[in-house]
Write a structure and sequence with these properties.
The chain is mainly alpha-helical and 173 residues long. Helices cover 42% and strands 9% of the residues. A hairpin with a 5-residue loop joins β2 and β3. The protein binds heme C.
Length: 173
């Protein structure tokens, strides 16, 4: 029994490791980048997406998204988007939620309050620390959800796009 249990879990682990990323569901659709401007990649429908090279270099926005997610979302949604006892996994959520719905929830919040639970997602619509980086947070989480970005801080990223800091300063006011 022990032997079988062990090999079953090894097999399950191998399947999890080997599952090709393209078999994962992505609520926003095919994440393949077809264009980029100022370091931000877009998929064929024009939605923001990641771009991760074979050597692990991530696009600028995925890298910024990690930092902003960790500063503003992690305390409830757990490290690396994996969820916690306070809030659901966003790695899972983005397999069904699309970009527009994501923006709506982060801007306006979401509540699921009943006798047995009290789940409140705050509205961040007037918080520049979140809204000025909302695409970056989405792109980072989309990469996590698609299984192409490991846990933890990305080690290598594309350089800061020219003009990025000016846009950031203007947004932050
Ligand atoms: C104070 C805790 C808290 C913080 C901080 C927080 N969330 Fe949430 N979030 C929640 C809870 C609780 C829910 C579940 C609400 C529900 O079920 O209606 C939720 C739900 C969501 C959902 C919908 C998930 C689903 O499965 O429907 C998204 C998307 C989301 N949060 C994104 C974010 C992002 C992005 C940030 C950071 C900018 C963030 N949240 C910060 C508590 C939080």
């Amino acid at each position: 029994m022990r032997g079988w249990g062990r090999s079953a879990s090894i097999i399950a682990g191998l399947i999890a490791v080997c599952a090709p990323a393209h078999l994962r569901a992505d609520g926003t659709g095919n994440p393949a980048a077809v264009s980029s401007a100022d370091g931000k990649y877009r998929d064929k429908n024009g939605n923001p997406t990641f771009n991760i090279s074979k050597d692990g270099t991530v696009d600028w926005y995925s890298s910024v998204g990690y930092i902003r997610y960790t500063a503003n979302c992690m305390q409830c949604h757990g490290p690396d988007g994996l969820g916690s006892s306070f809030a659901p996994s966003l790695v899972d959520a983005l397999q069904t939620i699309d970009y527009r719905r994501f923006l709506d929830i982060v801007t306006n919040g979401k509540k699921n309050v009943s006798a047995s639970q009290d789940l409140v997602m705050p509205a961040f619509g007037v918080n520049p620390n979140v809204m000025c980086y909302i695409d970056a947070i989405f792109i980072y989480l989309r990469a996590r959800s698609d299984g192409v970005l490991e846990r933890g801080q990305p080690q290598k990223s594309e350089p800061r796009p020219p003009g990025y800091s000016a846009v950031e300063d203007a947004c932050m006011g």
